[in-house]
Amino acid sequence: MVNIAELRARHSKMTQSELAKELGTEQANISRWEQNPLSMNSKNLIKVAIYFNVSIDELLGVNEKEKVLA
């Protein structure tokens, strides 16, 4: 799983507020998503994935082994 906080840190140590502004949301949402990525709706998952150039699977912690078993 790729943590949003880790992604922010890699991205010029971006703050939650800065990311919220980029994604058109509020800082409280970023905080909640960092604690529980499953709390994001599909629209926001896509926004975060595109912004950081990662897959939705990475954000949700789905790995290749789990995909095969599903």
Integer average pLDDT:
89
Rg estimate, integer Å: 12 Å
What is the fold-level CATH name, i.e. the topology?
Answer: 434 Repressor (Amino-terminal Domain)
CATH class label: Mainly Alpha
Contiguous low-pLDDT stretches (5 residues minimum) are none
Shape annotation: globular
CATH superfamily: lambda repressor-like DNA-binding domains
Terminal Cα span: 17 Å
Task: Provide the CATH architecture.
Answer: Orthogonal Bundle
User: How helical, in percent, are the residues?
Assistant: 55-70%
Individual helix count: 6
Q: How many distinct folded domains?
A: 1
**Number of β-strand runs:** 0
How large is the share of residues in beta strands? under 5%
The profile of the biggest β sheet is: none
List the secondary-structure elements in sequence, H or E. HHHHHH
InterPro entries: Cro/C1-type_HTH, Lambda_DNA-bd_dom_sf
Keywords: DNA-binding
Organism: Brochothrix thermosphacta
Protein name: XRE family transcriptional regulator
Descriptive notes:
By secondary structure, this protein is mostly helical. It contains six helices and no strands. The chain has helices at residues 4-10, 16-23, 27-35, 42-52, 56-60, 64-69. The radius of gyration is 12 Å and the shape is globular.
Short description:
This protein has 70 residues and is mainly alpha-helical. 66% of the residues lie in helices and 0% in strands.
Task: Name its key features.
6 helices; XRE family transcriptional regulator; 434 Repressor (Amino-terminal Domain); DNA-binding; mainly alpha; DNA binding
